[in-house]
């Protein structure tokens, strides 16, 4: 628990046997539960997760990264989570950041918090391929201009969400592929959610999952389509199902200003 709020970590897994144990051992004790959703792995991910005491949900077929997350968030919300943190079990993102990003939601500062590989300048040092870095920066610039936000990146896989935020979004309308993450973040901006970022070191190594150039290109096209759909929904040109909900429903928590010396008793 954190500030009397239940924190649940979800792990969208596919062939994560080699890195799962190290990931789990670094998740802080303030987490109330960990749920692993296995997307029809061909290795011993499920058996290892069971031995580590995780709650495990298995897909009977491979549904893709987005389809995996849909199961993750439904399971976490059904378990009573007030805060849901997505951690990739491939150890590319540091599990030690679960506590600080969850705290920013638990204490009412943000509705969603992103672990940014760009803040702090560690992406290339961590081994991010240069073409991915360039694509990340270009797509982020385009989306910041089109969506009216000022984020350091839109493509991180370490994220924390409030329960209210997840319940406010039509997640099932999103893609079951990698662009799910980008669609979800665009929906958060469309909704008017409060978005925070923290610097997150990242590691690229042989056992960490990473999509190839072809899949990266497909993802980039999907990001541009999501951006176009967002602008169309905002301007009334057309409205895709992923933006078929009223914007600006989440209300920022009011914060009283500190008293001046004259007002203090």
Report on the architecture of this protein.
The protein has helices at residues 20-25, 45-51, 64-78, 98-106, 130-147, 163-168, 180-191, 213-235; strands at 7-13, 33-38, 55-58, 83-86, 112-116, 159-162, 195-199. Helix 5 (130-147) runs parallel beside helix 8 and helix 7 packs parallel to helix 8 (213-235). Helix 2 links the parallel strand 2 (33-38) and strand 3. The protein has one domain (7-243): Spore Coat Polysaccharide Biosynthesis Protein SpsA, Chain A, CATH 3.90.550.10. A 7-stranded mixed β-sheet has the order 3-2-1-4-6-5-7, with helices on both faces. With 265 residues, it is an alpha/beta fold. The protein is globular.
Task: Please provide a brief summary of the model.
The protein has helices at 20-25, 45-51, 64-78, 98-106, 130-147, 163-168, 180-191, 213-235, and strands at 7-13, 33-38, 55-58, 83-86, 112-116, 159-162, 195-199. It is α/β, with parallel strands linked by helices and 265 residues long.
Layout of secondary structure:
Blueprint: E1 7-13, H1 20-25, E2 33-38, H2 45-51, E3 55-58, H3 64-78, E4 83-86, H4 98-106, E5 112-116, H5 130-147, E6 159-162, H6 163-168, H7 180-191, E7 195-199, H8 213-235
Parallel strand pairs: 1-2, 1-4, 2-3, 5-7
Antiparallel strand pairs: 4-6, 5-6
